[in-house]
Amino acid sequence: GERRRPRPPLPPSLPPPVMASWAAWRRALAAPLRWGSSTALLQLPAGAWAGPASASMATLNQMHRLGRPKPPPPKPGPTEGRPQLKGVVLKTLIRKPKKPNSANRKCVRVRLSTGKEAIAFVPGEGHNLQEHSIIMVEGGRTQDLPGVKLKVVRGKYDCAHVVKKKK
Question: pTM for the full model?
Fold first, then answer.
């Protein structure tokens, strides 16, 4: 039979080229194959293949040595981990709730003692809050108001209790 010529050996390990974009892939696949004269190495354009992912899975040995990975610590809420915060009312607002609900919600823009500004919901019917009122806010989002994650504490500082209805 006919003897085949052996292929020339591959060069010592080269670093894998980095994938640039989908366009680079398409150009690489559409171009005719260009073989080197002395080596049988496929010449891809610069930045055509990414190789294995850099953040690979942990091996069983690593998992055994390092143990279970710790979950990330919980992020502090709008009150930065404190139960309540004092604040000054900057403006009273009326917000419209999300889709199925329709009642107007009374809210206030507050400058907190931490220096941040936030919007807080005023629970109950009616309130006596105005600009420069001192209030206390606590965490607790209002489900139908997007972005409102604080509630005003009624009956503390300048915010009066909810008035009972007359019979």
Answer: 0.58
Residue 115 tokens, joined: 């220096």
Kindly report, residue by residue over 124-133, the tens digit of the pLDDT.
999 999 999 9
Q: Which residues of 71-94 are buried (b: 16+ CB within 10 A; e: fewer)?
A: eeeeeeebbeeeeebebbbeeebe
Confidence of residue 58 (pLDDT cuts 50, 70, 90): confident
Query: Could you please report the per-residue DSSP string of 66-92?
Result: H-SPPPPPPPP-TTTT-SEEEEEEEEE
pLDDT in tens, 138-166: 999 999 999 999 999 999 999 999 998 88
Cα(130)–Cα(159) distance, integer angstroms? 9
The neighbour count for residue 133, using CB atoms within 10 Å, is: 19
